[in-house]
Write a structure and sequence with these properties.
The chain is an alpha+beta fold. The mean pLDDT is 89. α1 packs across α3 (43-55) and α2 (32-39) crosses α3. The chain has helices at residues 6-19, 32-39, 43-55, 91-98, 117-123, 154-157, 175-181, 200-206, and strands spanning 59-62, 66-69, 76-80, 103-114, 130-140, 143-153, 186-197, 213-223, 228-237, 241-245. Helices cover 27% and strands 34% of the residues. The protein is built from 8 helices and 10 strands. The protein is elongated and about 65 Å long.
């Protein structure tokens, strides 16, 4: 078995000390030089270990002050399930209400945006074809907990009452219900989750450390004719949220 990288070993040691209450939430850690000397590693190894624990929400860095044990916080549960589409409400708001939080979102829509190559491939259209793009910030008690950027083919909804996802009589109804309003039946969705580090912009919007761990979900809705009707990039911070998938069982 390959030997564990030194920074992971140091991260485990720091995590153990916190678990054993050697350091309590709010305590300032010794300097990187002190930790490095104690464990016989360089300061860069300690830095990588601390950055990993910061990205996981175990530690927090304070500019000009040092590294501290983070205060424990309740992770928000984000449920992914095809059964959670509601004709008269938002699954996100329902999830937040179950946690005793107020769920809401802010959005910005731009119409007639040329599709980048990756988005065009996911929607089955030509690169440069026009789309409606909507950027979302989902909030729990006014705190950002999830980002999403949605793309819909403009020719699918142009001239209808649902062309703007957050405008008109069907504002905020969700993809499935909005498409149903124009006679398009959404039959299924495909999601591809993968971990990665947050970009600088994502970190700023979510209030997390730059390069913190996030789960990036690529989701695409399909009609019963097999046409992609919407695709989205959903970004969830790992330290603040846990993702749970509900799988319906057909009997």
């Amino acid at each position: 078995m390959p030997e564990q990288p030194p920074y992971l070993r140091i991260a485990d040691e720091l995590r153990r000390r916190i678990a054993e209450h050697v350091w309590e939430p709010g305590d300032r850690l010794p300097s990187r030089a002190q930790i490095g000397q104690e464990y016989g590693v360089g300061e860069n190894v300690v830095r990588r270990a601390q950055e990993l624990l910061i990205s996981q929400g175990v530690l927090e860095g304070r500019a000009g002050s040092g590294t501290y044990v983070a205060e424990p916080r309740q992770r928000v549960r984000v449920v992914r399930s095809s059964t959670r589409e509601h004709p008269d409400g938002s699954p996100f708001r329902a999830d937040m209400e179950a946690l005793g939080k107020q769920g809401d979102w802010e959005s910005r829509t731009d119409a007639k945006i040329p599709a980048p190559a990756e988005i065009a491939a996911r929607l089955g259209i030509a690169e440069g074809d026009l789309c409606v793009r909507t950027a979302y910030e989902f909030l729990a008690d006014s705190r950002p907990v999830q980002l999403s950027t949605s793309w819909e083919p403009y020719d699918l909804t142009a001239g209808t009452l649902v062309v703007l996802p957050e405008g008109g009589p069907h504002a905020g109804a969700g993809v499935v219900n909005r498409m149903a309003a124009i006679g398009v039946t959404v039959s299924h969705a495909v999601e591809q989750p993968e971990p990665r580090q947050a970009t600088a912009e994502e970190a700023s919007l979510l209030g997390i450390q730059k390069a913190a761990l996030v789960t990036h979900i690529r989701r695409t809705y399909y009609s019963d004719q097999g046409r992609p009707v919407e695709t989205a990039d959903i970004v969830v911070p790992a330290a603040h949220c846990e993702i749970v998938y509900e799988i319906p069982i057909n009997r």
